[in-house]
Design brief:
The protein is α+β, with helices and mostly antiparallel strands and about 700 residues long. The chain contains 18 helices and 25 strands. The N terminus and C terminus are likely disordered.
């Protein structure tokens, strides 16, 4: 590439404070000899086993984007920190942010939460056939366990099924995922006048220059092939009069590059993939199986994932899956907020499970609020029931010429950005939020009625039908809209092949933080990322599977969670009702204090209130007879919501600038020196919370209580 500079190597800090931090002495902000600042956040606020380290750090080249956690390698390389600056074809310098560093690896070794080690036997029994093995009804053995049935999980399952048995574990029905609700489409360079470089530039600009450039190039380059694969599998996308794919344009894109199926693209992709999965004899679908915790063990200094515990929410039986490889594709955490476009299943289960399993988490402060969810309060006929998830009004409406007005029919977006309605989502969401607060109004209006009726109905039939049942004809009147929580740009930190720092654990989709989105996701890049990384994770997963064996005694290595039948229906109902109220309180705290516009005072208030609320909830549970290894859907979702909320708040407090989706009035400007990812990884164990501990380690939790 033109203008690429060599890595600038910076020696590791070696002063006294850094030494203390590496040895786990104290919790303080420190500054090493290289000038880089680190934030240690302890006291159990984040909860891995109770104490975490948040690092705003530059990254280190790790060869081909693979994760390498060998301490020996780190020593051989001198543990040098590097910041790669590249000036490619973009308008400003872009950080070359290779996803993982050997330096982070070293800290992970030092700060890793201690846990009871289970020996990894060398002479495991090998499974050669493609059928699953069951020792009893409550334990199942597979080569691959896939958690989640969205586009990432299904696409991955179809590929690895060619090499072994696959369990697809999904929380509700197989079709219920964030994928189903994706309206706009999939972005890909399929037009001769478009280019990979242009797609890269749009992605990086939208991401506020925090994107990983190598990841962006990989995704934008491989995207078109992933679209062609979907078409070959039977996915049907809209075509123009010339017979070619109809490519739409959305906010932040410089070209028409959005492949779509009217305004139900996700549903069409899900349909095609599900049909293929259900026909594959090597794939078994487990619906209504809620993933509780990953099953991990220690192999020396490595954490190894060997499967997952689940709760069959229909039979209330705990089912243990032992697997050689686990893919986490469980989606996001939209329900930490009261209003979200995400389906009810999006309670941050995957991020929380991975965090408790000592996986590295990154960039959780960047929560995307979609600017335009349907505002029920502005409909002529209001829905009789509160929606579980807000109805999305796709970005493509603005891409097709939709205009935003306040209730006085004054167009306002040109005041905030020269791109007006086509500005990236973070800009549009803040513009709407500002209008609502200044004018004390509850929604704004999105008008597409100036376009031909036939075009509106053909491009947005689902939106038109939804609005019409509440008395609104979008071909004649504007649509009431309001921002809603939509997408987590942060998540489990992944390398270029979906690998994590936990051996045998791969991630893809919204649960992952690959570096593609940076500080803000470009419209229609989410399905694209899921497709690309699901495919990239296949070969390393197969290699890991072939080099691993299954031990039928492994199921006995961990204490088994159990359902609280002994508590009785009255107490159980009281706990469920209490948990629902706590959930609403948590969501209210997040919306009020950790929303579109933030401040240090609001974030600290949220941190304090969430800690108090969690302590109150856990105290209530145990007072009513709940035991640490008990499981129930509502309680387990609640512990995951607490975990993700705390990750978001602590990450936001660590970023002292406004970038992309993270806007704070105390640090309203971009700071070039802070153009770094936020990294959260486990720290030394102190007193934690029930929500922060893997259930099979709950004996440790009890020992830590005063």
């Amino acid at each position: 590439m033109d203008g690429v500079k060599g890595p600038v190597n910076i020696q590791l800090p070696n002063n006294k404070k850094e030494k203390e931090r590496e040895e786990g002495i104290g919790c303080r902000r420190t500054q090493g000899n290289d000038g880089a600042k680190y934030e240690d956040v302890c006291g159990g606020k984040l909860g891995c086993g109770a104490s975490e380290m948040i690092t705003m750090t530059t990254s280190i080249p790790a060869g081909g984007g693979k994760l390498n956690y060998g301490v020996g390698d780190c020593k051989r390389q001198g543990c040098r920190r590097s910041s790669w600056i590249t000036s490619v074809t973009f308008s400003r310098c872009i950080q070359k942010e290779i996803s993982w560093s050997r330096r982070v690896s070293k800290f992970l070794r030092i700060q890793r939460c201690s846990s009871s080690q289970s020996p990894i036997t060398e002479n495991w029994k090998s499974i050669r056939t493609v059928t699953s093995y069951k020792r009893d009804g409550s334990t199942k053995y597979f080569d691959f366990a896939v958690i989640g049935s969205g586009v990432a999980g299904l696409r991955y399952a179809l590929e690895v099924a060619k090499h072994g048995s696959v369990a697809v574990i999904t929380k509700a029905e197989s079709h219920e995922s964030n994928t189903k609700y994706a309206q706009g489409g999939v972005s890909a360079v399929l037009c001769p006048t478009d280019s990979v470089e242009s797609h890269m530039q749009d992605t990086i600009v939208a991401g506020a220059y925090l994107c990983d450039e190598e990841t962006v190039r990989v995704v934008c380059t491989e995207g078109p092939d992933r679209i062609r694969e979907l078409i070959a599998m039977g996915a049907s996308f809209d075509h123009g009069e010339d017979g070619n794919l109809h490519l739409a344009r959305e906010g932040g894109h410089s070209h028409h590059r959005i492949v779509h199926a009217a305004d139900v693209t996700g549903r069409e992709i899900e349909r095609a993939l599900l049909e293929a999965v259900l026909m594959d004899p090597n794939i078994t679908m487990f619906e209504h199986h809620f993933a509780i915790d990953l099953l991990t063990s220690q192999d020396g200094s490595d954490t190894v994932c060997l499967g997952v515990d689940t709760l069959n929410t229909e039979t209330l039986e705990v089912i243990r899956f032992i697997s050689k490889v686990t893919l986490l594709a469980s989606g996001g955490a939209g329900h930490i907020y009261p209003t979200t476009t995400n389906p009810p299943v999006a309670t941050g289960d995957g991020i929380a499970m991975a965090h408790r399993a000592e996986a590295v988490i990154s960039n959780m402060e960047f929560v995307q609020f979609h600017p335009t969810a349907l505002a029920d309060e502005g409909l002529p006929i209001r829905p009789t029931k509160t929606r579980e998830n807000a109805f999305l009004i796709t970005e493509a409406v603005r891409g097709d010429g939709g205009i935003l007005y306040n209730l006085d029919m004054e167009r306002f977006m040109p005041m905030y950005d020269e791109r007006a309605e086509l500005a990236p989502r973070d800009v549009v969401a803040r513009g709407i939020d500002d209008q609502l607060k200044k004018r004390n109004e509850k929604y704004v209006l999105l008008d597409i009625s100036h376009k031909p009726r036939e075009k509106i109905l053909s491009h947005f039939p689902n939106i038109a039908a939804e609005c019409l049942q509440y008395g609104l004809d979008i071909t004649r009147h504007p649509i009431p809209v309001v921002p809603a929580a939509h997408y987590m740009c942060g998540g489990v930190r992944a390398g270029l092949q979906g690998e994590t720092n936990v051996q045998g654990l791969y991630v893809a989709g919204e649960v992952a933080c690959t570096g593609l989105h940076g500080a803000n996701r470009l419209a229609s890049n989410s399905l694209l990322e899921a497709l690309v990384f699901a495919r990239r994770a296949v070969q390393p997963s197969i290699d890991h599977m072939k080099s691993s064996n299954l031990d039928f005694s492994a199921s006995n290595w961990w204490a088994r969670p159990f359902v609280p039948m002994a508590l009785g229906i009255n107490i159980t109902d009281k706990i469920i009702q209490m948990t629902k109220e706590v959930r609403k309180q948590l969501q209210a705290i997040m919306w009020k204090h950790v929303g579109i516009v933030r401040s240090t005072m609001r974030l600290k208030t949220a941190e304090r209130k969430i800690g108090e609320l969690e302590a109150k909830w856990e105290e209530y549970l145990f007072r009513e007879g709940w035991e640490p290894t008990m499981v129930g859907l509502e309680a387990c979702e609640m512990r995951n919501l607490f975990c993700c909320a705390k990750l978001v708040v602590s990450s936001a407090l660590a970023r002292h600038e406004s970038r992309g989706l993270h806007y704070t009035i105390d640090f309203p400007h971009l700071e070039e020196s802070l153009r770094l990812p936020t990294i959260i990884f486990p720290c030394s164990p102190v007193k934690g919370t029930w929500s922060s501990q893997q259930l099979h380690k709950q004996s440790k939790y009890l020992e830590l209580q005063p």
